[in-house]
Amino acid sequence: MRLTPLGVDRRRHLARLTRLALLGTAIATLAAPASARVTQVVIKTVESPAFGGKTFGEVGAYERVSGQIVGEVDPKDRRNAVIVDIDLAPKSPNGTVSYTTDFQILQPIDRSKQNHRLLFEITNRGRTNALGMFNDSPSGNDVTTAGDPGNGFLMRQAMS
Question: How many domains does the chain have?
Answer without folding.
Answer: 2
